[in-house]
Amino acid sequence: MSLFNRLLKKRGIEGESTGIDPQNVPNHIAIIMDGNGRWAKKRKLPKILGHREGSNVLKKIVKYCDKIGVKYLTVYAFSTENWKRPEKEVDELMDLLLEKLKNAEKELGGDQAQIKVIGNIKGLSTEIQKEIKRVEESTGKNSGICLNIALNYGGRDEIVNAVKDLITDVEKGIIKKAEITEEYFSKKLYTWYLPDPDLLIRTSGEKRHSNYLLWQMAYTEFWYTEVLWPDINESYIDEAIIEYQKRNRRYGGV
Ligand code: IPE
Ligand code: IPE
Ligand code: MG
């Protein structure tokens, strides 16, 4: 039996793996779940069914990441720029998000996962805000993976908000301008409680940040696939991790 399977067994999980080195599983994986629209279009389905299928895939991936020992998973669900989409799509997406949050304990692995939302939450409907509060409280004591859902999230928006907070701290005399460090700054971000991502996975072939975790991904390893998000399964996560484990992370050193 491989080391990895022994590790799984120790955690009470039976099953075959995968080729992942269990000693070097990324602590924090970020995902840009892209390609739902193209997935639906290919099948001549309404776009929302692509988003719905995408959310089913997320549930599987949360469970799998938890199983293999990933501690933090941060997924891009709705960007600050996604409001530019047609009103019908935005409305349907918000309805879907609300539905998933309401059933997060079942639908997003919330029976074990600790679920949190990052982003400009005040810009969401009061109903969604209420549900976010509920889910965060109800899953807050779970001991499994920490699932962070980026909702109405934009990296630039996050940085601007952090700067405003910093200015307030300086004005109030909580800190002097000269004393501000990178660490202090990073505690003002939506992700203040998170380590930086080790690995970014982006599906559907796009090779850009799209305003995701701009500060946090300074030294994150990127992995892209042409596969559309609703077609993703556990084996692609393995593929990404195996590739990640071959990388030499130098952080600017030698
Ligand atoms: C990603 O899928 C999900 C969201 C942005 C909400 P898209 O809707 O961007 O899918 P494509 O890129 O059009 O295929
Ligand atoms: C990024 O995907 C946002 C989410 C996956 C939620 P987009 O589809 O919005 O990104 P662009 O427009 O292709 O850069
Ligand atoms: Mg897209």
UniProtKB/TrEMBL annotation:
Residues annotated to bind substrate: 35-39, 47, 51, 79-81, 83, 85, 202, 208-210
Matches recorded under InterPro entries: UPP_synth-like, UPP_synth-like_CS, UPP_synth-like_sf
Cofactors required: Mg(2+)
Keywords, alphabetical: Coiled coil, Magnesium, Metal-binding, Transferase
Active-site residues, as the UniProt record annotates them: D34, N82 (proton acceptor)
CDD domains, sorted: Cis_IPPS
Example GO biological process: polyprenol biosynthetic process
Chain positions recorded as Mg(2+) binding sites: D34, E221
A Pfam family the protein falls into: Prenyltransf
Coiled coil regions, renumbered to chain: 87-114
Entry EC no(s): 2.5.1.-
UniProt GO MF annotations: ditrans,polycis-polyprenyl diphosphate synthase [(2E,6E)-farnesyl diphosphate specific] activity; magnesium ion binding
Cofactor, how bound (note): Binds 2 magnesium ions per subunit.
Family named by the database record: Belongs to the UPP synthase family.
Function: Catalyzes the condensation of isopentenyl diphosphate (IPP) with allylic pyrophosphates generating different type of terpenoids.
Subunit text: Homodimer.
Name of protein: Isoprenyl transferase
